[in-house]
Amino acid sequence: MKTIFISGATAGFGAAMTARFIKNGNQVIATGRRIERLEELKKLYGEKIHTIVLDIRNASDVEKAIAILPTQFKNIDVLINNAGLALGVDSAQNAKLSDWETVIDTNINGVINCTHALLPEMVKKNNGHIINLGSVAGEFPYPGGNVYGATKAFVHQFTLNLKADLIGTNVRVTCIEPGMCETEFSAVRFSGDQQKAQDVYKGMTPLSADDIAETIEWVMNRPAHVNINTISLMPTAQAFGAFAIDRGRA
Ligand code: NDP
Ligand code: 8X3
Question: What is the Å distance from ligand 2's center to 136 Cα?
């Protein structure tokens, strides 16, 4: 039985992980900003879950929430830095600065806030696993990916740099880097426009949130001497494109 802290358990990957991990005998600290969704999770999972209304962008709120965990949930085995978002697909020259700031604040500051709050205790007890949600967008550029992809490149490199620092301990670190997966991600990216969000997955089979949860469960349950550094996965129906060439102005 593991105690697993999940940022962003109110939707998508986080909700799928919560369901799968509890079903398979673990307990979960589920966090997110939407209180009504957290209340639903509490109703569903009872004593197996501790819910916290938490905006991971706020470092002192993160620290406080961890400091006052109930005894049953204090001994955290796994931190899953899952909460994150993209806003828009505008070209960099047309993007809103406030959107970029929100994405950086969530995908970078949120990850370092949770990591900073939980890592020292993992090192002290010489046991723990930090699993970060990167993206194929952190490796492969695409139009409109600008700051979102850059934050995921941060997550990738931060994971590997943690691994470098953690040599000599039993603390493990992993970056999971999915491609297209149908969750609320696109609805958030398109500011609630459900039609645009659905069109992203039209005519193809995307990954499901449970595909990601199952992969993370596998990573988490490797023997203690095995560290999975990164996993990149995408739908069979997704692939890479050719370079774009500007031929109009020669
Ligand atoms: P969803 O939009 O379905 O879920 C995102 C979760 O993050 C929600 O639970 C949301 O909860 C939480 N969240 C967002 N901002 C904050 C915040 N400031 N503080 C706390 N929680 C927050 O997206 P996915 O499940 O698809 O995405 C999960 C992760 O996977 C993200 O990091 C995303 O970038 C990454 N990813 C997604 C892919 C996809 O195609 N879906 C592919 C590759 C990576 P609430 O709103 O209640 O706070
Ligand atoms: C989300 C996947 O391809 O929309 O990280 O950027 S993608």
Answer: 6
